[in-house]
């Protein structure tokens, strides 16, 4: 007989990094002053977690460490939760990439599986490592409430796995603005494992 458990994950994307919006990927920029304000504003007095899991990148882990110290809970970092590597597009704005490499950028958004960023990570490899991490923490922290501090692309991969969204549509099918929050509930019972997206971007729906 399988042990039953309910695990609740809150996901939050990092705030604005120094340098503003761009294809940042593996660039390890810290949060800007605005980014810190966005992150702190996204947390409410009603929030409580048993643990925090974070991408090791500075725009995520610095805020995750602040929260872990505030709540006196354990902070785990996971390399698998890094953002996708955008290769030659990193450090450039969407407008700059569109002006110089618009055709390839359009193909990427239309079919990210078949069209990787030049010199970057394939969507399949990115998805594989994120989902591996996602399933690991479901088992490791089963029955608890967890905050994951990560990136827009990572949230897209997790939501796609949760909702069985084809990988071809995982990037274009979900918006993830700075400090956007999501809640996913994972139930394990004799009937199997069920994942459900409870809320995305609606703060009034995820404060309880």
Automatic annotation (TrEMBL):
CDD domains: HP_PGM_like (cd07067). Transmembrane segments: none annotated. Gene3D superfamilies: Phosphoglycerate mutase-like. Pfam families: His_Phos_1 (PF00300). PANTHER family: BROAD-SPECIFICITY PHOSPHATASE YOR283W-RELATED, HISTIDINE PHOSPHATASE FAMILY PROTEIN-RELATED. This is Histidine phosphatase family protein.
């Amino acid at each position: 007989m399988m042990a039953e458990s309910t695990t609740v994950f809150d996901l939050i994307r990092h705030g604005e990094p120094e340098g503003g919006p761009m294809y940042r990927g593996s660039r390890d920029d810290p949060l800007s002053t605005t980014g810190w304000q966005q992150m702190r504003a996204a947390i409410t007095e009603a929030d409580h977690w048993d643990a925090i899991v974070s991408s090791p990148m500075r725009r995520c882990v610095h805020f995750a460490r602040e929260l872990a110290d505030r709540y006196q809970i354990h902070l785990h970092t996971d390399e698998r939760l890094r953002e996708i590597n955008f290769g030659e597009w990193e450090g450039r704005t969407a407008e700059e990439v569109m002006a110089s490499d618009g055709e390839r950028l359009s193909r990427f958004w239309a079919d990210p599986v078949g069209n990787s960023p030049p010199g970057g990570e394939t969507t399949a490899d990115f998805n594989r490592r994120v989902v591996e991490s996602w399933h690991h923490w479901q088992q490791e922290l089963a029955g608890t409430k967890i905050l994951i501090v990560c990136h827009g692309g990572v949230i897209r991969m997790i939501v796609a796995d949760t909702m069985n969204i084809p990988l071809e549509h995982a990037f274009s099918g979900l918006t993830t603005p700075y400090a956007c929050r999501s809640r996913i509930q994972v139930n394990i019972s004799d009937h199997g494992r069920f994942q459900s997206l409870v809320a995305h971007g609606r703060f009034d729906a995820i404060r309880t």
